[in-house]
Each structure stands twice: as C-alpha cells, then as structure tokens.
Amino acid sequence: MEKYQKGIERMSITGIVCEYNPFHNGHQYLIDSVKKDGDTVVCVMSGNFVQRSEPAVFTKEDRVKSALMCGADIVLELPFLYATASAEYFAENAVRILSSFGCDKIAFGTENDDIMLLKEAASLLLSDELDAKTKEKLETGVSYPAARQLAFDEYGIKIDLSQPNIILAVEYLKAIEKNGFNIEPVAVKRVGAGYNELKADGKYVSAAYIREAMKNGKDIMRFIPDSAMQCYVNAIEKGSYLDLEKYELAFLSVLRQKTEKDISNTAYITENLDSRIKASINEACNISELYSLAKTKRFTHSRIRRAFLAICFDIFQEDIDITVPYVRLLGFNENASKILGKCAKNCVLPFVASYSDIKNLNSESADRVFEFENKSTAFYNLILSNPAKCSTEMTFMPVKMK
User: Fold this and answer.
1) b vs e for 224-241, b when ≥16 Cβ sit within 10 Å of the residue's Cβ?
2) pTM of the predicted model, to two decimals?
3) How far apart are CA 123 and CA 155, in angstroms?
4) In the chain, what percentage of residues exceed pLDDT 70?
5) I need a labelling partner for 74 at 20 to 30 A (CA). Which of 114, 294, 326, 332 fits?
6) Which domains does the chain have, with CATH numbers?
7) Which residue has the higher pLDDT, 142 or 397?
C-alpha cells in the first residue's frame, strides 16, 4: 500500500464516510475533532440516494458545497450501488475508496468509542464460527440482526449491534481487517441525540430529527452550521430540494409496473418474499403503507426498503457484488489542490472527475456502476420541487470552493 502514500510527506489525511442528509452540528463536531490536529479531511459521500434507501433531502451538489463550506477539504463519491446497500457493502466500498485515495486514517462517530472493543467485535463478525451460530438463531424465526446479536452475546463482548453508528464502525473495521487496508481507525464519541432519535435536546440532534422538522415546517437553524444553512436556504429558493409527494407518486408508479418475475430477480428478494412484495405494491397507496404491508417478523424495515429500491432500479446481486471500480471526485477546496493532485496521481483505483473519464476507462464494471448513478439521478431530478433535466449526471463537474 506504499504506492498511494508516495509523496505525501508524513501528512495525515483522514477520511470520513458520510451522507450529510443534511449537514448538521454533529457532523461539524466530527470534522472539527479531526482538523484540530491539522489533518486534511477527505469525505466519501453518498450521492442523491442514501443508505435508508430513500432520496436525500438536498441534491448531491448542494450537500458537497455544505461539506466544503464547513471544513471538508475534498469530497469523493460513494456510488449509488454501495450508498444504498447493506452496511457491509456500504462500509467496505467506502473504506476501499478512502484507502485507495491515500487516507491513512478513517474517523467515525459512534456511541461506543472503545476502539479495541470495536476491533474485537469486527474480528468476531469475520469468523465462520459466529456465522454458523447466527444461522442457528435464524432458524428460530427472528430477523438477521436479532439472530446475529443473540449469537454475538454468547461470546461476552458487551456491544450493542442495534445501534446504526456502532454497526457501521464495526463494518469499517471489518473492511480494514479483511482487506489489509493500511488505514488507522479513529473512533470519536458521538455527542447529543442518537442516530434516529426524534427529539431536540441542545444543539446536537439527529439528521432524522432535522428531516422530520423540515417536513413539519419547524425551525432548524440552531441545529445546522451557518455556512451549511446558507447553502440550504439558497437551494430552497431555487427549488433544489426533495418533494416528498412527487417521490411517493413516482416511486409507486415505477413499482406498479413490475411483474412478479421482475421482482424475484432483483437483489434482497429471498424466501418467497416476491409474492408478498408484489401484493404490497398492488395494495399500497403511499410508501409507509407499502413498507408496513411487506414487513414480516423475519425481515427488518431496512431490508424491506432496500428490496423496494432494488426493484425500482432493477438492481441485481451481481451489481452489488461489483467491487468499486473508480474513485470519483465531487468537490474540493482550493487550498487542498496540492494534496488532491498528489493523491489523484498515486490513487490505487482509477481516479475520475467527469463522465468522459469514466467512459475512457473502457471498463464494463465502471460503466455498469455509472449506469446506476445516471439512472438514479435522472429519477431524483424529476422529484425535486423544481424538476431538473435527466442528463445532469453526465455533465456533472467537481465543485471547487475558494
């Protein structure tokens, strides 16, 4: 792994995996925690859809701008296929991008910042023995996360795998151990509300709370840094934000055109879930109802949401199994130009900044990954308050901030 470190001159480059949906004070806290030591901050960010298998509230471009305005030096893309995948695929491909680009650290916020305990948990999750125990627990009819926790508890490691940030932290560490990435994990104790906590207590709240507050017309200014807030105000003024009613209509419209055969061939569909999902599509009149009708004791809400998104965009398991084929630049601060140039030159994966760069790779994997990026953005642009044309992904160029 020395190839990508050549010429960086002992400079510490710390990666952060993010969605910034939207950027808030907790995100600022993590960036500030990293930058206090003078580190360069490289964010790998989800595009227009996020891991909850839903569209982001603001566009990729506006979320890149908010990150750069609040201290990020460089923003890279976590492609759609991985940004909307399960935690394992999400984390492994994100860490691969950061490692390839030249990051020597990865920082993440988590409720439990005991890095040795997190590493112990990651090693256990990589073991065949735990996998066998998890399969035994699954036979009792519980969901996979519940089965895994039950198996995990038998080893006496006190860690709660139901916490989303802990799940991701452990998955980052799994990716590092499994692939031998030369990148140091840095756990930062999460401050304020929990990941999905829908209450306001002080200036640190969850992104879920902010999204809910926005939907209900509540004031969110005290929870978002001024620079990011100005970016979002500008986005709202030009109608560059998600219209939930349009999303529900467009999403359900696409799903209703799918046959049971279409559904059975897509990713995340197992154990006769296809007929249940088709029945849910035929009956549901809104997305909440869709998810509730399809929900079973065996499958979590996140699994169900992910399955519906895969159906909408015709995602197959072989697509998700593609290892991320490139590192794509989304934006950078001008003062990071020198570091960006060195990292781009020494990047292990092909480094790209435009559609033409991707096309010139002459890679079936790269073309397939970008195909989903293009398709998802075309869909996303239609569900904005002020819809945009469908071809913007092919003309997108990195944001440059002074």
Assistant:
1) bbebbbebbeebeeeebb
2) 0.92
3) 12
4) 95
5) 114
6) 3-111+168-242+324-366+391-401 (3.40.50.620), 118-162 (no CATH), 244-319 (no CATH)
7) 397
